[in-house]
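User: Batch of two.

Assistant: Item 1 of 2:
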Amino acid sequence: MQDGLLMRLRLDARQNYIPGYYKDSKPLECQMFMTLRPIPLWSLARGLVADSVVFTDPVRHERFPGIPILASERSTEGQTVRTTFSTNLAKPHKVDLAEGQLLEPVVCMHWEKRQIVAKLLPVPVRFIRSEEP
């Protein structure tokens, strides 16, 4: 909460083990859920863009390359805007992780001409081995 504006970010980190196109690279993916309020005008919410997520392994002190993310779904309800961001898999990032391992995410965003960098609490990595419904 800053100056009456609430921004809530929740991140889900996962590594893809589904056989198919990415079977050899096992890319690190993420999905981010963002809630903003109060946003009086829709055009203000459209200006907020999340660019990438950078994960750091706190145990090995290793920083992984930034993962580009794109807005995949956006909805408004009153003055609340909810956005779902998903990984852009045009350039998959292969990393060696253990299931349940904690990663520290840093989200890079920009809104109008301002840059926002948000350091989030560590999140566990979960492995995806089959298609989710």
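Item 2 of 2:
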Amino acid sequence: MTDIDDDDLLAPAPELASDAGPDDSDDALADGGVGDGQGIVRIWVQDGRLTQVRVSPNWHTKVGRARLDDCFTRALMLANVSVAEVGARVAPTFDDVDFSRLPRFSAGAFAAFQGAFDEVEQRWDDALERSADDHPDPLPATVGVHKGVSVALTKGGIAERVAFDPRWLETAQAGAICSHVMRAAENAYAQFTPAQDDRSELDSIEAEHEFLLTAFKAMLNPKERS
């Protein structure tokens, strides 16, 4: 978007050209475009990054008493709902484990499982405490700025907020807004440093806890494991 000539940026986008604005009844377009619901802003996100922005040429009259900042926030929220968290953990399954050799439920078996659960939970608490010690201070928000526009990223590097200098916005046209939003976003992405969050130990302990829970349920329901 930043390589497009200013004349092209100032040209009204077809779906935003009318006073009525785009039809947002089917916002999840095939190309990924997502609107704010008022026909003022439409954004495109790919792989969690803002790739294109369009603003209605008539945004001054459409926005009313609201703020253009809020229109961008709504569009970003709707777009980010469909963005999968990077590194999202897939819960393990134990379909290939043979639980048929588990003992029948008894006071002794229950005590053994209880001891195992207590031990895993203690290691979980210890690991959380070590993780907190390694990351005592949260990273500051990453914000990119260009002209009168700023774009803030989440700790995962996803654009979540666009803010405008009110004085700059008073005379800004739709094309200039689009251009500077994208340039502010690129500045933010250039500054972004992913948080060093090593969850390997926590994930391992959580998987162990889930295995114990699955085994305990299998012991309580021997017919389901036969």
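The radius of gyration is 26 Å.
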